[in-house]
Automatic annotation (TrEMBL):
CDD domains: DeoC. It is an enzyme of class 4 (lyase). Belongs to the DeoC/FbaB aldolase family. DeoC type 1 subfamily. PANTHER family: DEOXYRIBOSE-PHOSPHATE ALDOLASE. Its EC number is 4.1.2.4. The lineage of its organism: Bacteria, Bacillati, Actinomycetota, Actinomycetes, Micrococcales. This is Deoxyribose-phosphate aldolase. It comes from Isoptericola halotolerans.
Amino acid sequence: MSAANPTPTTPSELARYVDHTLLKPEATSADVTALVEEGAELGVFSVCVSPTFVPHAVEVAAGRLAVATVCGFPSGKHASDIKAAEAARSVLDGADEVDMVIDVGVAKAGGFDLVQADVAAVRAAVPADKVLKVIIESAALSDDEIVAVCRAAEAAGADFVKTSTGFHPTGGASVNAVELMARTVGGRLGIKASGGVRTLADAQAMIAAGATRLGLSGTAAVLAGFDDGAAGTAADGGY
């Protein structure tokens, strides 16, 4: 565990790591309102919503917390200029952070220069004062591929590398992947662990491994682990 990144010991400390997330296709504006209000009450860092909900989330949040969204989600199989346009629109709508998905198949084929170009295109559309996270779908990659993709994301100007969409059949975040990502970027980029982080024990393990942000859909249940001493299972919100 990094001395600069100690394990949170209170709900409020852990909440500041959290992107409180709702990316279900069937989500409604009322659901987003509830997400923002719950996030503000819990003291999370941000809410993460689908692009069409960014204006509504920004309005409801009213500066109480950051608003994040996704780009090229969840497959990453979008042309780079389309991803860039989507990201630019989200920033125009008020998003503070954009989580883009790489084309995992390109990475599996060894096209890391193409991954870098893809990230760079989105970075060019996301101003420097806004945060760009790069979702690498770590469970679908070998260790060598994780290292190469993280290096490509860093070279392209990303602010974070992120484990997972939470929608891929290979699974979500793992301690091994987070540790490997953290070693690769060496503190120069943030590390976001998302996908399957459903208990207090899960969250603390990811932070101990090097995560500096967590994508959670069941934040209240995770934080409740401090009260009951158990790592309660969070509802599946697509993350």
